[in-house]
Design goal:
Elements lengths: L2 H4 L9 H13 L5 H9 L20 E4 L2 E3 L2 H12 L6 E5 L5 H7 L4 E6 L2 H13 L5 E5 L12 E6 L8 H5 L1 E11 L6 E9 L2 E10 L10
Parallel strand pairs: 3-4, 3-6, 4-5, 6-7
Antiparallel strand pairs: 1-2, 7-8, 8-9
Helix pairs in contact: 2-3
Bound molecules: S-adenosyl-L-homocysteine.
The site of S-adenosyl-L-homocysteine has 23 residues, from strand 2, helix 5 and strand 4.
């Protein structure tokens, strides 16, 4: 365990026991990957939400993080992470929608390097602070529009999108490595999208629907 984690173990409603209860719930809901469960168990989610909401940090629900955005529900974070870490651990992961950085922190413990893009500067700044508190130094954050991916760092073994476009942005498919996996919520509705898992083999993209989910929209910047 990295020492940054020890410092933030929490007490009462933010304690290790509370986190472990959440992990048991996730297991009951079908999360099986032990590496994912271990990362969730050790990561102080309360560090990623406003202090006023810290006591609710281990409920299995999305919570507001300001600017009309939310921290994803733990079950959804676990499910998306489980999909991308199946098989050999990914070296390079791209995340779109850093938000508060919680999903980023989980990915950073399971991949060699994580690149994450967020369009709201203040959220990215706060995420950076929380990630530093945990000494997670294998993360590179960038403020900007994720729609075009991060061509300079491509290809990626996995891409995790935590905001919902109406259609899969083509740049993301192009930036997947051979055998790479993309997990992305897609749909035109506000509160209900299809969570897709797309795997690349050559120029074929195999698509599997995982679940119905509810994400904030992936904003398309005017250009
Ligand atoms: N990953 C976060 C959830 C973030 S919510 C977690 O772990 O909880 C989705 C985030 O996507 C928001 O912060 C929103 O500002 C961001 N976002 C929306 N459209 C975007 C775009 N085009 N490029 C980059 N970030 C975007």
């Amino acid at each position: 365990m990295k020492n940054g984690f020890d410092k933030h173990r929490g007490i009462g409603m933010t304690s290790q026991r509370t986190r472990d209860r959440m992990v048991v719930r996730l297991q009951e809901e079908g999360i099986r990957d032990q590496r994912v469960l271990a990362a969730i168990s050790r990561t102080p989610r309360h560090l990623f939400v406003d202090e006023a909401l810290a006591t609710r940090a281990y409920e299995d629900t999305a919570l507001p993080i300001g600017f009309g955005q939310t921290i994803s529900q733990p079950y959804v974070v676990a499910r998306m992470t489980e999909v991308v870490v199946t098989g050999p651990p990914p070296k390079k992961v791209l995340e779109l929608g850093t938000g508060c950085g919680y999903q980023t922190a989980i990915l950073a413990q399971l991949a060699e390097q994580v690149f994450s893009i967020e369009r709201i500067g203040e959220l990215s700044r706060r995420a950076n602070e929380a990630l530093r508190e945990l000494n997670l130094s294998n993360v590179v954050l960038r403020v900007g529009d994720g729609w075009q991916g991060w061509p300079e760092q491509a290809p990626f073994d996995a891409i995790v999108v935590t905001a919902a476009p109406e259609k899969v942005p083509p740049a993301l498919l192009e930036q997947l490595a051979e055998g790479g996996r993309l997990v992305i919520p897609v749909g035109e509705e506000q509160d209900r999208q299809r969570l897709l898992h797309i795997t690349r083999s050559g120029n074929d993209f195999e698509e599997e629907m995982l679940d119905w989910v509810s994400f904030v929209p992936l904003v398309k910047e005017s250009r």
